[in-house]
Structure to design on (248 residues):
């Protein structure tokens, strides 16, 4: 990636600085189950850059090993990533675990079990946030989440007004776009981030969420994140915030 490709972000952040404002950013990573080399890379680069991290953990398949590892990281929070990340949609539908394909009480019971399991493993490191697998959830389930113990819902895209639950969404996916997975051009990612920031300039709109998937990152994704943190971590026009602070 050439240095010129970062110029649009620098210019946008300078606009925020000159206005005496800070663009709020937050980071969510999905699909964690156990300690891996990829997770170590994510933890290292976020720790070195003082970037708060929220890791969406799949309750059905995780255990003490990941909890023990994450207990050593003060900058990492944990959220509930569905129950088992299983697809219950038909072959002609987009993948969903939390859709209308099963009875609502069955789905909600699994989510409650997942929250309880991660509370036991993580204690105060857990934030009562639901991250639906594939960022999809049936609208009829959302009003019932608070009764299961959830305070926040996190999907992808601009937060819908009038939601029955507090939303803390992601907006720029480092890995996925339009059916393509991995090796996204860095210039495209910078352009998406700048567009999100421009849409928020002059307002107190939602923070911009960056979405990652550490298990499938290659060299390109790690390079982009490392450069993004370097460009933003000390810039007076930007601030990285934790999911807990943003949802309180």
């Amino acid at each position: 990636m050439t240095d010129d490709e970062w110029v649009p972000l620098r210019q946008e952040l300078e606009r925020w600085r000159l206005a005496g404002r800070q663009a709020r950013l937050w980071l969510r990573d999905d699909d964690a189950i156990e300690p891996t080399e990829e997770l170590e890379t994510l933890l290292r680069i976020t720790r070195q850059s003082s970037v708060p991290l929220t890791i969406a953990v799949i309750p059905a398949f995780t255990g003490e090993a990941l909890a023990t590892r994450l207990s050593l990281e003060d900058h990492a929070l944990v959220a509930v990533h569905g129950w088992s990340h299983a697809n219950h949609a038909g072959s002609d539908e987009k993948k969903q675990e939390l859709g209308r394909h099963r009875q609502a009480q069955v789905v909600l019971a699994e989510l409650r079990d997942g929250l309880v399991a991660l509370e036991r493993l993580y204690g105060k490191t857990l934030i009562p946030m639901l991250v639906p697998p594939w960022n999809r959830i049936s609208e009829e389930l959302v009003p019932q989440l608070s009764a299961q113990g959830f305070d926040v819902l996190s999907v992808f895209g601009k937060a819908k007004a009038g939601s029955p639950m507090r939303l803390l969404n992601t907006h720029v996916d480092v890995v996925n776009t339009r059916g393509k997975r991995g090796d996204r051009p860095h210039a495209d990612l910078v352009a998406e981030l700048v567009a999100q920031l421009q849409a928020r300039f002059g307002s107190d709109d939602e923070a911009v969420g960056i979405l990652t998937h550490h298990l499938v990152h290659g060299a390109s994704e790690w390079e982009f994140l490392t450069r993004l943190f370097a460009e933003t971590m000390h810039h007076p026009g930007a601030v990285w915030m934790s999911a807990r602070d943003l949802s309180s």
In short: The chain has one domain: 3-247. The chain has a mean pLDDT of 95. Residues 104-122 form the longest helix (19 residues).
